[in-house]
Write a structure and sequence with these properties.
With 186 residues, the protein is mostly helical. The protein contains seven helices and two strands. The chain has a two-stranded antiparallel ribbon with strand order 1-2. The longest helix has 28 residues. The termini are far apart.
């Protein structure tokens, strides 16, 4: 049992450490990052109820392999998951005065998504065995980058008002990873 848990949680721990180290300017408080991770776990629990509600409210399309795949992957998986993560992000972090840099949106969303991935990995690996741990071990990589809120929240204005990010944008080509004045060079 300990081996199964370790195999399913090790990739999550590695990615948490990697993302935490990427914040080079102003480290986020550990308690808020832990809170985001815990809220990701809560989002996974809430997802079960929301997916059941979606299954009840959204009529199932006529039976065909394509319709079934789309209904299952979009209505029963993607929409409830992302909705739950968005709600948890808002409840957990959105109004925090520490949410004041562009990378913060990426960092908090990644911690929240990895909390979701952690509980999901444990459940899948407990059900499918150690063979599944390898393929699920790559899943957290998707969790840290697939959330549509990650980059969107990283560009919102600071909640605290202590620094002004207005008229600035994140530049992935700049030598620093903080906000730089937006210039168009197209």
């Amino acid at each position: 049992m300990l081996i199964v848990l370790s195999a399913s949680l090790l990739p999550v721990a590695v990615l948490l450490l990697y993302i935490y180290r990427r914040d080079t300017f102003q480290k986020e408080p550990f308690r808020l990052l832990a809170k985001a991770f815990f809220f990701g776990i809560l989002a996974a629990v809430l997802d079960t109820a929301v997916a059941s509600l979606f299954n009840y409210l959204v009529p199932q399309p006529p039976v065909s392999p394509l319709n079934d795949a789309l209904y299952t992957s979009l209505v029963l998986a993607a929409l409830p998951e992302e909705l739950c993560k968005l709600v948890m992000l808002y409840l957990c972090i959105w109004k925090s005065p520490f949410f004041d840099e562009y990378f913060d949106g990426v960092e908090y969303c990644a911690f929240l998504g990895l909390g979701f991935a952690a509980i999901e990995n444990v459940l899948y690996v407990l059900q499918g065995g150690l063979g599944l741990a390898v393929s699920r071990g790559l899943s957290p990589c998707r969790r840290t980058s697939s959330s549509p809120y990650s980059w969107a929240t990283s560009s919102r204005w600071p909640a605290s008002g202590t620094t002004s990010a207005r008229n600035t944008s994140f530049s992935p080509t700049s030598s620093r990873s903080s906000c730089t004045p937006y210039t168009t060079s197209y």
